[in-house]
Design a protein that fits this description.
Radius of gyration: 43 Å
Helix content: 40-55%
Distance between the termini: 60 Å
Number of strands: 12
Shape: rod-shaped
Strand order of the largest sheet: 5-12-11-6-10-7-9-8
Length: 520
């Protein structure tokens, strides 16, 4: 990772880092308040030689005293020194308990001994330190006295008497808070880095490029009301979401610059990535550009196109594949442009077999003769094989990737599935991108019109629209392409004919539709 990656981690995980920093500060501050304060009193002694003589003798005596100082420091923590101090103060503790509160040290190349005592009372700490110092003086005098008699050659003197401290030595609240803050920041940064390393979700184009080099056809910005208003026609004309689908339409045309592919399968790795809304809005965008478009809902497990567009779903693709009705009676016009929709029909028990059948291939071939573009909404790749089977009948596949939802391993498996069947992947669409993301489109120059809701065309099936006919493009070129009814298939499922007939009657009453696709 480079510096930008670390800055991105900080930007995306600042709440986590700030939370741990505050948590560390709070814990340190609370602990400082709850801990009982302790006081430390100090005293200092000077070690000297009790003899006078020449300079050389004094130098030798000084070297001798420095050599003995470290021994005296060790003697401070022994019962020889501590027990007399306990007795003099009448302390209700043992020498071993007092030794844990007494510390003695000596500076290098000096004859100074420092003694410090810690206690819950400032006065008691000073009294104990002074008592220990006095006891050490007496103990050294006794230990250094010659056995033959006479005075000790070593003399200890108190040069800094112990005084009661005015402030506690512990806890150091400021230091503890600072350490807690630093500990919280370090822990928050560590968890953020670990979270970033372990997080395999695709968040933008850099993550996508770690998986595939397929062209990025579009970046669809996420909007909060997209679930309630999923259609392109329900958004403001110049909104980022609407512009994203127009950009997707343009990029798809460049990806299919040779023009050989007319049928596009739109799928995803897993459910919930927005493939159905992407397929539906792509079809709407293509029709707004003047193309004749047929939107086929081939998700025979969880069909959503009919629900989005407000169309009859009970008669559709499965009805045509079973030969229960002619496709002329199943296509439903939608909107004010040249867009027709073939909904899913009744959900069958064998979707994969139907989508991979010869009848499906013939149906798509007939649609390609009548329309400029066919957009097929297919099921996800990983849970079922429907999309992989269907991609063999199509000219190209568009894979929708849900930002912050799809994981790299899932997308990789999905693309491998398409490669196994030699499907042509035209590109990838990044969906649900956050507006603050650098991969999302944002526009700051929209006029006030962008804030006005556009007309809702859901369920618009006007007689004037039906009268224009499906093959308007054929009338221009003089070519008469007719779609003949599909060859009936033997696949039937319980209740299909009855439901299809009922749905067809509803459809015929709702609109006037050309009897044949070759009628202009």
């Amino acid at each position: 990772m480079d510096l930008r990656d670390y800055l991105h981690i900080l930007r995306t995980n600042w709440v986590l880092i700030a939370t741990f920093a505050l948590l560390g500060t709070g814990i340190a501050g609370g602990a400082s308040v709850l801990i009982k304060p302790t006081y430390t009193a100090e005293t200092q002694l000077f070690v000297s030689i009790q003899s006078s003589g020449s300079v050389q003798e004094l130098q030798q005596g000084n070297t001798f005293s420095q050599a003995r100082v470290q021994s005296y420091v060790k003697t401070v923590a022994t019962p020889v020194v501590l027990q007399p101090a306990i007795d003099s103060l009448g302390l209700p503790i043992s020498a071993g308990d007092l030794s844990s509160r007494v510390k003695a040290s000596s500076d290098l190349n000096t004859v100074l001994i420092n003694i410090s005592v810690t206690d819950g009372s400032a006065v008691q700490a000073a009294a104990t330190a002074q008592a220990v110092a006095d006891s050490l003086i007496k103990a050294v005098d006794t230990l250094e006295r010659p056995k033959t008699g006479g005075s000790s050659p070593i003399s200890l003197s108190v040069i800094t008497p112990a005084t009661a401290p005015t402030a506690p030595s512990a806890p150091n609240t400021k230091l503890n808070i600072l350490l807690g803050l630093m500990a919280g920041l370090i822990l928050g940064l560590g968890l953020s880095l670990l979270r970033s390393i372990l997080d395999t979700r695709i968040k933008g184009e850099p993550d996508l490029r770690n998986v595939t080099d397929a062209p990025l056809l579009g970046r669809i910005a996420f909007e909060a009301d997209a679930q309630k208003k999923p259609l392109l026609t329900q958004a403001a004309i110049q909104s980022p979401r609407a512009e994203s689908f127009r950009q997707l339409r343009t990029n798809l045309q460049f990806a299919n610059v040779a023009g050989h592919a007319k049928t596009f399968v739109v799928t995803s790795s897993l459910p919930g990535e927005g493939k159905s809304t992407t397929a539906t809005n792509l079809a709407i965008a293509l029709s707004e550009a003047g193309q004749s478009v047929c939107l086929v809902d081939a998700d025979l497990r969880r069909p959503m196109v009919g629900e989005y567009l407000g169309l009859e779903r009970n008669a559709g693709l499965t009805t045509a594949l079973l030969g229960a009705a002619d496709i002329n009676d199943l296509l439903q016009p939608w909107g004010q442009d040249n867009l027709y929709v073939l909904t899913s029909g009744q959900i069958p028990p064998n979707p994969s077999e139907l989508l991979g059948s010869e009848e499906m291939k013939i149906l798509l071939s007939r649609l390609e003769q009548a329309f400029d573009t066919i957009v097929v909404d297919a099921p996800p790749l990983l849970p079922v094989t429907d999309a992989a089977v269907l991609s063999q009948h199509a000219g190209g596949v568009v894979v929708v990737v849900g930002a912050q939802k799809t994981r790299t391993q899932d997308l990789q498996k999905a693309l491998e599935t398409l490669n196994l069947v030699d499907a042509k992947v035209l590109g990838v669409v990044l969906n649900r991108l956050q507006m603050k993301s650098t991969d999302a489109y944002s526009y700051a120059y929209y006029s006030a019109e962008a804030n006005q809701p556009s007309e809702n065309f859901v369920g618009a099936n006007s007689d004037a629209r039906a009268a224009r006919g499906i093959l308007r493009q054929n009338s221009r070129g003089g070519t008469n392409h007719s779609i003949r009814p599909g060859t009936p298939v033997d696949r039937k499922f319980s209740g299909s004919n009855h439901d299809d007939d009922e749905a067809l009657s509803v459809t015929r009453e709702a609109r006037t539709f050309p009897q044949g696709l070759n009628n202009h």
